[in-house]
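testing teh design pipeline on a random one, pls ignore if ur not involved
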């Protein structure tokens, strides 16, 4: 069965401009998609400068974020973590926009350079 998935971010009105921002985790939910509906990805519901939205991350792009959020790395690149324990944690990340590798006409918003935020950030 053919399937389509929207991997764009769902921030209201527009993408996040390129730059560095602080995000508060509202939730993280594992979902499946792809041609065989067996490819895992995570939908991170976040708050950024008072705006609530979503960022889709593939597991291979989450290692640094999970480390920053204090999740247990059981062996290199493998994590044991509870999605409920990351809620309300705050981290910084850099937003950029890049062409999709399979379809260069599509621009994907990416999140990288994760860093723990030590102080309370008002949201």
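output:
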């Amino acid at each position: 069965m053919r399937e389509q998935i929207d991997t764009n971010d769902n921030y209201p009105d527009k993408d996040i401009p390129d730059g560095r921002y602080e995000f508060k985790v509202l939730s993280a939910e594992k979902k499946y998609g792809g041609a065989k509906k067996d490819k895992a990805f995570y939908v991170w519901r976040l708050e950024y400068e008072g705006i609530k939205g979503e960022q889709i991350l593939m597991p291979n792009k989450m290692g640094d974020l999970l480390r920053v959020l204090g999740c247990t790395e059981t062996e290199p690149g493998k994590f044991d973590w509870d999605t409920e324990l990351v809620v309300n944690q705050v981290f910084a990340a850099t937003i950029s926009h890049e062409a999709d590798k399979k379809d260069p006409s599509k621009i994907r918003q990416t999140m990288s350079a994760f860093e723990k935020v030590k102080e309370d950030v008002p949201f």
